[in-house]
Amino acid sequence: MDPLPSSVLAQLNRLPYTAQAGDFTEVSAMTGPDWWEPPARAYSHWLATPHLAPGAACSLQHYSGRLLSVVVMVWALTGRQMSLRPEHWQAQVDQHGATLVVRHQERILLGHVSAAQLGAAVAQHLDPMVEAVRRPSRLTLAAAMGGPASSLAAAFGRVYRGVAAVDRAAVARAAHEAQAALTERAGRELTVLQADDEEPDLLRQHRTTCCLIRLGHGHGTCETCPRLEFTEQVRQQRERHRERPGVPVTWAARS
Questions:
Q1: What is the DSSP string of 165-177?
Q2: 46/67 Cα distance (integer angstroms)
Q3: Which domain of life is it from (predicted)?
């Protein structure tokens, strides 16, 4: 394995998902069958809901969102996969059960892979966590995997926004191909990806499962939630897209 090139590290430093200092948990511990129940309960408590399922779904999505933002960005910039062996990663999880940032060992870069191969590695990394989250919460497999699928879609959406217009179609294809392993495991499509016809650098996602955060006190539905009308999902996603600046990305991957 190789270390990340300095140019890639500089790009990752523009994302708020990695850090070196602080108290971290070994991700290898997070694959244990009993690890996720306390964070799930803490998250549900923070949401002020007596139900465990929302905390379970959201705590796992927090982790996958931080991890996959880094992994997909590195793949987009290099065409190479970061090792996803749990012992090569650590996560900083707060008192509410939310993962704030991740960090990885210095030598982390493997060889070139396709988008489908990247998605398969992601699914394999998350498999034990999905099962651990489901055990106490009774989430269905699709509901538990819906969060990671959304995280993967969002990570590709960030790349889609940053690349040159000529590369957007390739990024969209890669995003679809990377989702395949998660779709296969869940036995159903988890998120639908669509290039927006009004915002040219927006790759929308439309989930088929709910993250359940709406069950928390004071929380509503997300802009990707299937409980929203499709036109309302589009409107909210465009609005949020306009509020947040993108980060330029030099596309180097080949699916």
A1: GGGHHHHHHHHHH
A2: 22
A3: Bacteria
> Would you give the distance in Å from CA 12 to the centre of its chain?
15
pTM for this entry: 0.96
Residue closest to 151 by CA, chosen among 62, 65, 59, 57: 65
Residue 85 scores a pLDDT above 80? yes
Closest by CA position to 36, among listed 118, 134, 111: 134
CB atoms within 10 A of CB 193: 18
How many CA atoms lie less than 13 Å away from 38 in the CB half-sphere? 7
For residue range 186-208, list pLDDT tens digits in order: 999 999 999 999 999 999 999 99
Distance CA 168, CA 163 (A): 7
Q: Would you list the DSSP string of 34-95?
A: TSSHHHHHHHHHHHT-S-HHHHHHHHHHHHHHHHHHHHHHHHHHHSEEEP--GGGEEEEE-T
Contact residues for 245 (Cβ-Cβ < 8 A; gap 6+):
none
Whether 123 contacts 181, CB under 8 Å: yes
